[in-house]
Amino acid sequence: MKKKFRVFLSILLVLIVGCGAVVAFAVEEKALVKGGESYSGDLIAAGDSAINDGHVLGDILVFTQSLQSRGRVDGDIWGFSYDAQVDGEIDGNVRLAAYDAKLSATVARNVMIIATSITINQDAVIHRNLSLMGNKVMVMGKVEGRTDIHSLDITLGGLYEGDVFIHDMTEDSKINILPGTVIKGKLTYEGVLAYQVPQDVEVGDYEYVKINPVSKTPQTGYSIRSIIKQLVTVVFYYLIALLLYKLFPRFFGRSGEFIAGKPLTAAGIGIATLGSIIGGGLLLILLFILTILILKIKVFVYTGLAYVFFAALTIAFADIPVSLWLGNLMARKNTTIPNRLAIGLITITAVKIALDLLGYVPALSVFAGIIAFLVNAFIWVMGTGALLRVIFEIFKSANAQAEAEADEIEPVDF
């Protein structure tokens, strides 16, 4: 029992030290922008809190206990926090994952929030689309684009210039559209039970879509848990990737560019690597047999560790080059590499989540499974190809530089 406890403490210590190293290398030291101050560039923070009362001349990307942005942000806000509150003016998008999220800002583009409790206050103005997923949702502001809501408890008020779509309402779900609410577009209510729009609510058009209570209810719960799990995984993966970026900045820049410049070469290297892994596995089995008959156990152990390390390296980090490639395609020219990485990771995660959800639709499950396999295979092949090619180029450059320095050293006569 004591031995197991010591092992547990050792593992816990390694995790704490590793997380501390990630935070120390990956994030900005400054997580506070006071009123009247300007922060040039992208604000990346992790830890207890991130506060912006001034002007951020870029994006905000935080992994904190608390996020408060009451000032101006020229770019996007990407927040993963327990408590998130966004006010002021946002020239880009707002994307939050939190336990409790509140928004009172004027947002020039889109808003997407996943949280247990979501409040869009009456001062909020969203110039494009609004997407919400949570247990309890209250929207009281103005939305000029489309509104999509997944929740068990919904309260609507305010003004909606576009269409409003209420998804997957079960028998236990609640919806309350307050008097004076204006929906100029079409209201679509998807639920087990029919819903009657109150007479004191203005709606351009209304449609009720009946769903099956047996198939829908468990799928929705599982999907939400799966989405939260994938988001948490993305957060930790991104922090580790940022640590690698701090240590090897040239590697990150070149890996995404390699896929864009030489996609066929990246694919060829990735496919060759797959063959090497399969062949290496067969060789490892043969080596195990020889170890039992002839060789020492150390030969098998060392070879097996090298094989596992190589396979884990390609599996764990194949997403990074592909994410950078996608980020380069989607981001603005002045967007930093960490933010391009974030955009790519979010895009890949969104595609995987969408395919997971389609997998629960009987008519599309087989199609979604095939597409999911192809997407994962594409990411692994292209990412592994770029990963190994850039590592090879880095070692080649290092060897060339070492040889050049050796040639410059004149022999000393004794």
Task: Write up this protein.
With 414 residues, the protein is of the alpha/beta class. The chain folds into two domains: 19-214, no CATH class; 219-402, no CATH class. It is built from eight helices and 20 strands. The protein has helices spanning 2-26, 213-247, 249-261, 263-293, 297-317, 319-330, 337-358, 365-408, and strands at 32-33, 38-40, 43-52, 55-57, 60-69, 72-73, 77-86, 89-90, 94-103, 106-107, 111-120, 125-126, 130-139, 142-143, 147-156, 159-160, 164-169, 174-177, 182-191, 202-210. The chain has a 20-stranded parallel beta sheet that branches. α1 (2-26) crosses α2, α3 packs across α6 (319-330) and α4 (263-293) runs antiparallel to α5 (297-317). The longest helix has 44 residues, at 365-408. The protein is globular. It starts with a helix and ends in a 6-residue tail after the last helix. Mean pLDDT is 76; it is low at 1-30 and 214-222.
The computed structural class is: alpha/beta
Number of domains: 2
N→C terminal distance: 66 Å
Q: Percent of residues in helical segments?
A: 40-55%
Low-confidence stretches: 1-30, 214-222
* Helical segment count: 8
Q: What does the average pLDDT come to? A: 76
What composes the largest sheet? 20 strands, parallel
Beta-strand fraction estimate? 25-35%
Q: Any idea what the shape is?
A: globular
Radius of gyration over all CA atoms, rounded: 26 Å
Number of strands: 20
